[in-house]
Amino acid sequence: QVQLVESGGGLVQAGGSLRLSCVASGSIAGINVMGWYRQVPGKQRELVATITRGAHSNYGDSVKGRFTISRDNAKNTVYLQMNSLKPEDTADYYCLMTTMWGSDYWGQGTQVTVSS
Questions:
Q1: DSSP string, 39-57
Q2: How wide is the angle at C-alpha 47 spanned by C-alphas 24 and 53, nearest 5°?
Q3: 3-state SS class at 74
Q4: 24: which residues sit within 8 A by CB, 6+ positions away?
Q5: Are 33 and 97 in contact (CB under 8 A)?
């Protein structure tokens, strides 16, 4: 049974920083893309950032220049460094891992709240 476990969320003031982590437990082979998405109640889940096994990254327009995604393939872990946080970054953040065979795995989410 594969599980993705996120950590690092919490409450921070505007302008502050947080670092999210997501580790895959269980047997998960052939991870290709790792990523982070976020969702506010009543709105669609939106892309934050993704990173391929070859370390090519892609960011949502609203976080470019402020967030950095990275990964540790040996540890099946993906990170999201979030700097210069804004109240509009408040959301539940979800980790996603996709395999070379097209399987998707989602985490349960970690809450990020940015106060003004």
A1: E-TTS--EEEEEE-TT--E
A2: 45
A3: helix
A4: 2, 3, 4, 31, 76, 77, 97, 105
A5: yes
Amino acid at 33: V
* Angstrom distances, CA of residue 37 to CA of 73, 111, 116: 19, 12, 22
Nearest of 86, 92, 91, 54 to residue 70 by alpha carbon:
54
Q: Tell me how far apart the alpha carbons of residues 26 and 23 are, in angstroms, rounded to a whole number.
A: 10
Residue range 56-113, pLDDT digits in tens = 999 999 999 999 999 999 999 999 999 999 999 999 999 999 999 889 999 999 999 9
CB-based contact 31:53 (threshold 8 Å): yes
CA triple 17-6-59, angle to 5 deg: 60
Residue with tokens 């959301």: 91
